[in-house]
Each structure stands twice: as structure tokens, then as C-alpha cells.
Amino acid sequence: MGNVIDFQPSAASLDALLAEVARIGGQPLEDAQTFPPAAYTHPGLFALEVEKIFKPGWICVGHASQLRGKGDYQTLNLLGELLVMVNDGSRIRVLSRICPHRWAPLVEGCGNARSFACPFHKWTFGLDGKCLNAPLMEEARGFDPADYPLPEYRSEVIGGFVWVNLDGKAEALAPQLADMTASLAAWETDRLELAIDLQYECRFNWKIVVETFMECYHHLGAHASTFEPNFPARMSWVEDTRPAWTLGHAAPRPGREQSAFDYGLPHFPGLASESEKQAFRLYHVYPFHLMHAMPDRLIWFRVQPVAADRTLLQTYVLVHPDTTKMDNYAEVMKQQSEIQHAINLEDIGVNEMQQIGAHSGMVRPGRLSHLEKAIWQLNRYVAGKVCGARAEA
Ligand code: FES
Ligand SMILES: [Fe+2]
């Protein structure tokens, strides 16, 4: 099947595509359609999404559990930018990891460092990005290492999650997410520990990742034996539109015992209401921050769009700190990792199918079920950003 999606996207006119995106983004829910297939394949639309959505927006790039100690760092490539997230001892910073001398990337991967020394000519930078030493530069007139720090990206840490705004001009994020953060209070997201990290190089558009994540209609097919028995598609629903985020719920099949909500890990101690104890919540912060809140874990899907038909996807399972102390923790998490991977493959399989279908000349916008309200919400968001005027409800 792989060669099918190696075909180049059609040379559909970007203007015609944008007109369709605007039309579909303005539909009422009852008339909702998918975007046209070119919205998932056209490099011109992807370039517009980068310029008008990703760079001006907020992208979640890390979690405090990866950066607890002074000097802990994590690197990331994001839309051509090379980042390093680092704990400088007082706060988490997101710095450029490109040396300001002749632009070599300073550091790769993750680890702990006291400073960053460039492998090219050994300029050295502190954890706060200051240039500490630039050898043999005495004869460069007026040169002062202080004028050459590693540039810092604008960032915020909210509930332990590290967010970056690449163009530096976005509105502050924390107030936009205040109600979401409150809804997750019982999960104590800033205290969570990273338990599972699974990575996938996906051959489909970033919107397909979000769409499938947010609708439970596909429990009928893709998750027929995993989610459908306890969380049937027909009982799922999505909350009304908010500017910065939305929330979907997979409600349990009526009459399930509480034990149906035990997945192998201790529940978060602070869960109080039934809605928390039976939670199957799907959070989506625009454009593509995805979290699945369950009674015993919070799963964060880190999405990195690479091209119109390429997306890196990382699944992080985060657990309460007490969970890491349970007997046979390593063995339990190995088993949980296999379960999570199998479920991820159920989604990746259908996502690949959708992307393959999008390359056919016979495909036109499909109709959406009311269970796919979050796709309708995403369409409105994308159309509003790339086409200008946002459709009114
Ligand atoms: S490129 Fe980094 S020191 Fe020269
Ligand atoms: Fe799924």
C-alpha cells in the first residue's frame, strides 16, 4: 500500500481549495462535511497552515517530568526550528540550539548538562543561553560574547506542560486555558511522571491525527473489540465550541460496574465525581495538542506536522507519582505499553487509509455524523485562520 501515497499531490489550485475550505468552515453542524481531499495533500495549504496557524499559535513541546533537575534538557525539531528545552535552575526555558557563530546545532537528544559547548569551534553557552566563552576572538573588533546569546523562544509552563510560541506574538496562553486547567485539577498534571513514550512516523496529515483522536464514531470499526464494548460510539459527545480548546467525552455503556474503569494502574487519588472516576475525556487545544484523560493516567499525544502528508506522533503516558512506587511497576508498564501500542496501531491504520483515499480523483467531501462534531469545530478553526473570516455559529 505504501507506494500509493508516494504519489505527488494533484496540482489543484490553492485558490479553489481555499474557497472550499472557507465554504465548509462556514457550514452549520447539521450540514457538516469533511474538508476536500486536497486539504490533506496540498503543500500550498500546508505552508499556509504553518504561516497562519502553527507559527503564530502555541505548541506544546514538553512536560516538566522530562526537565525536573537543573541542567536537564530535551531537544526538538519543530517546523524548521531547532529547539532545546532546558531547566536553568530557576525555570524552564526554550532556547534556539543553533550556535550564533556559524549556525551549527549545539546539542542533540536529551540529557543533563552544565553548559552547551558547540562542537564546531567550542563557543560555550550557559543554561540561560548566555555566551560564556568564545575562544580566540580577541582580534575581532568590538566583539563581546554577551551580544551572542542563544535566542530564547517565548514559552509558558501551564500545569507542567511546556508551550512555545514561535513568532513571539501570540496572546498569553494560560488565561485561554484556565477553565481547561481547572477541569483537570484532580489529575495534578504538574506532578505527573512519564511512564511510556512511543514514537511513530506517520504518513498522514496532522488534521487526520486530530480528527480521529477527537471522534469516537470510529470505536464501531477501528476499536470494535477495545473501546466499543465499554465506550460505545453512539454514547459519545463533544462539548460546545470554545475559542482555544474543546473537549469530547466517551460516555460508558449504561450499567457498567466501576471495575470496568480499572485499566491496571491505581486511580488518581483526587478524583471525586463519577465523571472523573469514569473519565474518558478527549482534550484538544488548537491547533493540535491532544490529551486523553482516564482515571489512572493522562495520555499526551505530541503531534509534529512535518509536511502535508507526514506527521511525527509521540504518545506519552503520564501517571501519578505514587503509581511509580507500585509493586512490579516496570512489569506493569511494559504490559501497559504493549496495550497502548496496539490501540495506537488501530488508529494509525485507519488514518493511513484516509490519507490513501485522499489521493484519489474520485473523492469529494464526505458527510459528518453528529458524533464528529469536533471535526466540524476543527474545520471552522482552520478555515478561520487560513481564509480570514471565521464562520459564526
Ligand atoms: S559554529 Fe559554533 S562555535 Fe563556530
Ligand atoms: Fe481511536
Automatic annotation (TrEMBL):
One of its GO terms (molecular function) is iron ion binding. Keywords: 2Fe-2S, Iron, Iron-sulfur, Metal-binding, Oxidoreductase. It is an enzyme of class 1 (oxidoreductase). Residues 58-164 form the Rieske domain. Its cofactor is Fe cation. The keyword ATP-binding does not apply. Its EC number is 1.14.-.-. The keyword Iron-sulfur applies. It holds the Pfam family Rieske. It comes from the Bacteria. Belongs to the bacterial ring-hydroxylating dioxygenase alpha subunit family. This is Aromatic ring-hydroxylating oxygenase subunit alpha. It comes from Derxia gummosa DSM 723.
